[in-house]
Amino acid sequence: MNIEQVLAQAEGLLAPWNKETIRPESNRLDVVIVADDLRAAVTALHDAHWGYLSAITGMDLGTASGQLEALYHFCNGPAITSLRIRLPRGNEAILPSIADILPPASFFEREMQEMLGFKFSGLNISERLFLPDDWPENVYPMRADFTLDQAAPVAGRHADELPEQGVVGGNTFVIPIGPQHPALKEPGHFEFTVDGEIVTAARMRLGYAHRGIEKAAESRNWIQNLYLFERVCGICSHTHALAYSLGVEKLAQVEAPPRAQAIRELVAGLERVHSHLLWLGVAAHEAGFDTLFMYSWRDRETVMNLLEQITGNRVNYSANLLGGVKCDIGSEQAKAIKEGLTYLETRIRHYLEVVTTDVMFLNRTRGIGTISFAEAVKFGLLGPTARASGLVRDVRTEAPYGAYTHFPVSSVTETNGDLEARCVVRLKELLVSCFTMRTIVDNLPEGPLTTRMPRKIPAGETISRIEAPRGELFYFIKSNGGETPARVHIRTPSLCNWVSVLEKAVGRQLADVPMLIAGMDPCFSCNDRLVTVARPGSRETWSWSRLREYGIEYYKR
Amino acid sequence: MNTFTSLITLLVFPAGLTLVLVGMFYEWVDRKLVARFQNRIGPRWFQPFADAVKLFAKEQIKPAIINPYLFFGLPVAALAGALTAALYVPLMGLNPASSFPGDLIVTIYLLSLPTMCVGLAGWNTSSRFSLIGATRTLTQLFAYEAPFLLAMLGPALVAGSWQINTINSYTQNHWLIFTQPVGFIVALIGLMGKLELPPFDAPEAETEIVAGALTEYSGRGLAMFKISRSVELIVGLSLVSAFYLGGLNGIPSFLLKSIALLLVMSMFQVLLTRLRIDQTVGLWWRFGAILVLAQLLVMIVWKGFAL
User: Fold this and answer.
1) N or C: which end of chain A has fewer CB atoms below 10 A?
2) Strand locations in A231-332, DSSP E?
3) What are the b/e assignments for A271-283, b being 16+ CB within 10 Å?
4) Which positions in chain A touch B207 (Cβ < 8 Å)?
5) Given this model, what pLDDT does residue A537 score?
6) pLDDT digits (tens, 9 = 90+) for B197-212
7) Low-confidence ranges of chain B (pLDDT < 50)
8) For A205-229, what is each residue's pLDDT tens digit?
9) Average pLDDT estimate for A250-273
10) Residue B138 near chain A (CB below 8 Å)
């Protein structure tokens, strides 16, 4: 089936509730419906197995129009169908919750509830996921008329003043993991209720690394935003900048030259190697196998050095420009890359052998946290976590973008769905990546590195999906034709994969929990990016000079 | 032996101060070996000493909901237990400071005292990490204690004595590692369980329960627990090498044999993934205890025929 047929099928399924059909892009079909029909429409798509819910975007259309808009994006290969619902602004923007039909929706809905003030009937979770505890009620940071003055902290609700949850009593008590905990490399908060060693309940809280990036993007111009989005995540910085560049280029109807596209894929491949090796080390450390941790991080230095040699940076590579790339691959770099890849391939093969044959390590991974294919579909898992359960969710093969049409990769899948399968999938994926990178270096297209980009981007909406190391990264970009974007919505793969941890931890031993968390390769920085931190009168508001003085005083002692 | 020399023996050499310093040195050897196996540089030679000095100089923070007598008394009891156990073993290959028939049993019980203290210390706080850690420490104690005792019993049986010194002189002509290999392996691995070294570090698995039972400890208390563990290491190494590696009869033989043992132990630490607490218990009771019991049975039958 081609895209048109797939979209026609969706249109047919949604016909009973269809108020208006819009075709914003060749691969997209937007169907306008009313809020009351939402559950019926979602059920129709779900029952027909038409794609999966990729994200829900909430938008404030401004005080002038007096409306909020919610977009439910369903992806099926390259085809995307969005259900559009407009609701009045104010406090009566009520949508029916679809979290019982599609579990991952609960995170999307909670995000919209906190950020934009949508209400969801049937979503009985009032505790906050992202916003601080002392954030005032009925103040929504992503609303167009939000000002910082509204966000003065509520007295008595600071985290230090709230009663501690889960105090010891009886046989069950709550083990807090985070925000600061040796198992977590980034701040997040989990509470696992344990009965002896067995976990009986799990809940989580995010938002400790919120930086307000989506809000900040609305007040920066298109080029500034490239550098902002690169900083969403420290591990997959290139994929964020790439998703944004591809989206903006699509809006401006500009295509980056072939050489630039190939270099983008090359850097993305190197980034995947660095990210997965980092993950392998963390997973081994969580299991208590520090030797594997030390060795895999030593070998990761090879790829870090390659990235530094190509782009000049180790973390935020800044390889992308709107309309191209900054860095070229010369013969010297090409040689270094090929040598590095040869070394990495032998090491990755060795690690593959270790994770599949080391009996003690298998004790901690084989048969643990098993997610069946059906569960993977139900939870809406993405990336390697889904592929370990046999579910192919890989934008690189499903909807190839950029240079992936010329230098294709194959998706690696496993069927067991346990922690061992997740290790194997990631490592095998690296071997595929290494092979593709070698092909790119050998067959790099000649030509310029950049094309000209307009300063103002034509009005329109676009969806840019790319495969980050952790799964599908989703960017929704809306332009009003000005120098700044009207709305950028990011849905990172970690947000979709959380369900797998919370569902699978229950009934397991406490000792398996860090492995389960690590198993989906969570990235908290990616998840958290929405809130403005500096608030008037807040305890956290420190000026740079004061912070500097504090630092100097601290080290004088 | 006059009072003065007894005091020197107890406080300076070979027990007391020297023992503590040697314990720290061995801790460094262990850390350095593990680091080199893991492709790291590892600490400098004075790191354990520096750590101890630093901890002793620091304030000991007292948590809110505790029994203060237990909180401050337990580290002292742990250290005292480990140091007392050292009196009955041939430290540095010299004659034990004190010896009487049956001191083997006393030593083994004294060696369990630090672990008991750690368990109690974890139970004494309201920290949930400490509680889980304490539960795991005590669970692990019940797992390895019986097999370890049985592994110590083997040499006692062939030497026909419960006195460590007598067994030590017997083993100087008999390398029991060859005649009782199972006992040797169980004793060595039991020692690793006692010291909560990887892969038996579930009681202090940092990725789950931070520092386990000792999470709330700082300053002097933490230093004393750490030192008692170093002392336990020396005592344990002395016991195992005296019983299984041809006995100890001087400082060179002590250094050679105990460091060889430490090398093997650090290899185990590097090669193995941490066991979950249920896996630890399963391992000891399903394999350790049964194997060593089978060996004991064979020995008893053998002895019966020989007589």
Assistant:
1) C
2) 320-321, 324-325
3) bbbbbbbbbbbbb
4) 182-183, 285-286, 288, 514
5) 47
6) 888 888 887 777 788 8
7) none
8) 777 777 788 888 888 888 888 888 8
9) 91
10) no
Number of other CB atoms surrounding residue A22 within 10 Å: 12
Contacts of A286 in chain B (CB under 8 A): 207
Please report the pLDDT score of residue A557 as a whole number: 61
Tokens of A240: 């964020």
Who contacts A477 (Cβ-Cβ below 8 Å, separation ≥6)? A244, A247, A248, A251, A461, A462, A463, A464, A485, A487, A488
d(CA B25, CA A520): 41
Using a CB-CB cut-off of 8 Å, the residues of chain A touching B40 are 294
Write the pLDDT tens digit of every residue in B120-160. 888 888 778 888 888 888 888 888 888 888 888 888 888 88
Domain ranges of chain B: 3-306
Closest residue, chain A, to B35 (C-alpha) = A291
Check CB contact of A191 with chain B, cutoff 8 Å.
no
**Residues A364, B273: C-beta atoms closer than 8 Å:** yes
ipTM of the complex: 0.83
* For A360, nearest residue in chain B (alpha carbons): B273
Closest CA relative to residue A241, chosen from B36, A253, A256: A256
How far apart CA B291 and CA B295 sit, in angstroms, is 6
Q: Is B275 on the interface with A (CB under 8 A)?
A: yes
Domains defined along chain A, listed by start: 3-151 (3.30.460.80), 213-527 (1.10.645.10)
Say if CB A121 and CB A504 are below 8 A apart.
no
